[in-house]
Amino acid sequence: MEIHLYNTLSRQIERFEPIEAGRVRMYSCGPTVYNHVHIGNLRAFLCADLLQRVLRVIGGYHVQWVMNITDIDDKTIRDSQPGSPAWNAEAMGPQTDDPQENLRRLTRYYEQVFLRDIEAIGIRRDDFFAMPRATDYIPAMMELIRLIWQNGYAYVAGGSVYFDLSRWIEQQHPYGVLFTVDLERFIAGARIDADQYERDEVSDFVLWKARKEGEPWWVLELGGQLLPGRPGWHIECSAMGHELLGLPFDIHTGGVDLRFPHHEDEIAQSAAGYGCITARYWVHNEFLEVEGEKMSKSLGNFYTLSDLIERGLDPLDVRYAILSAHYQSVYNFTFEGVAAARRARRRVQEYIYQLFEHSGRQACDVEALEHAVFGHLADNLHTPKALAALFTFLGEHPAATLEKNSQRALVDFFERLNRIIGVWQIGERPPVVIPERIRQLAEERWRARLQRDFARADALRQQIAAEGYIVRDRTDGYDIVPHEE
RNA sequence: GGUCCCGUAGCAUAGUGGCUAUGCAGAGGUCUGCAAAACCUCGUACGGCGGUUCGAUUCCGCCCGGGACCUCCA
């Protein structure tokens, strides 16, 4: 099926066509590993995951998905410096005299935490082609900086190397392709050292930052000069995308905030150095809010995945909840919303189990269902419409009323759908092990019930309920199921 | 203040110039000794006021309310 995607470059939905038939090369901006990722970060990763799964399952493409790990930037350096309050000696070990080693200890720790988190929300490690660490690609970044410099778009000042944006713009190169940049306010010669900056601070951004005392450093050789320092933030994605996927690749993803300056600068650097565009499609996900407000530490609504797990949420319910909103609209993350998502998800799960249990005579058009659901997903990842189509179908076709062939076809469909949504178990209801004691109580209750001693039967049922199980009577017997929640 | 986005039934999420959506919650019912599960039935909602139109939730204007960015952040 054809995939259509909103491309930030053209500001419209376009039909997706890979550069190379059958193969999609996709790069997603990953985490900066200086802390736990929060649910806003997770949304970005979930959107990328959704996209790559849709490309595989619906598009039928071979997908090469790269997500970088930023393990060097202003914040990782700040938090790994001696005396940093962010240092967790128990997890990271003691700090050393070597800034590079301290950086490595901090970032490796949070990298592990990150990998655990994304696995918990259903992102599979196997789906990645590579997860490169920035510090492993510093030679490639140096090479790119030399290329930019050789092409005349970089200059050295104060031991740092800057991108010469005024020259770039003068020569009619595009800048502001992803984001309307106010070039009127561009100040020729003004320089920005920080990784993050604002769009009215359009200026020469840093490619290589001069070494500062106590910071990790590498030596860049540029035109005979030796420049100790470390890479700027934007350069890493340019270099790693080029090394691992080759330019241009097909799709670049990230949060909306990365359009500027990060992605804009990435595009300019790669064009100035490698002489080609970075990616054909740029896909950006919207932010989320928490209980109708911006998530921020000061409001106390800043959640990491482990915060949510501690509150008793199932990460897969979080996955489903986030996936149930369109990736380009602001999602209001609420605990009530996750609870609703949990029940919706369970309803589908129950339906799937029932497909294996009882049959009827009704036939249904699974092909039409798949066409509708996958059609919506292929249309710019429209999960809300896809799920609506699914639930409409479920309402019209109770599982137990369907004949065997339809049920089999549906199981196959759910298997494919779940390769995208990834929150269900496809198969028969797993047998639950009921403790012997509970089974005895239930058996006792059944006998009491047969003797029409309902008072005793109800008392026994209450006793069973108190231990976390529910007895459901059938005409010819009963089931015992664990009490959920 | 500047730039921008949004306001859809109790909550959340889609969508459309006329066919009134999806989930959760809720109500009634079937079934059951009672329950549970399942199933059936039920909600004309689009912030307010004007305008355009035969007709607006959907287009335009104004107002009200919320949010984003201007500090960290996907």
Taking the sheet with the most strands, its summary is: 6 strands, mixed
The fraction of residues in strands falls at 15-25%
Q: How many helices?
A: 16
**Please, what is the average pLDDT?**
89
| General shape | elongated
In angstroms, what separates the terminal alpha carbons? 40 Å
User: How many β-strand runs?
Assistant: 18
Structural class given helices, strands, pairing? Answer: alpha/beta
- What ranges have pLDDT less than 50 throughout 5 or more consecutive residues? 197-201
Rg calc: 27 Å
Range of helix content: 40-55%
Give structural notes:
Helices cover 42% and strands 17% of the residues. It is an alpha/beta fold and 485 residues long. The chain has a domain at 436-482. The strands form five sheets. Strands 6, 7, 8, 9, 10 and 11 form a six-stranded mixed beta sheet that branches. Helix 7 crosses helix 8 (262-274). The longest helix is centred in the N-terminal third of the chain and has 22 residues, at 99-120. It binds one RNA strand of 74 nucleotides through helix 1, strand 15, helix 11, helix 13 and helix 16.
What's a quick, concise take on this entry?
With 485 residues, this protein is α/β, with parallel strands linked by helices.
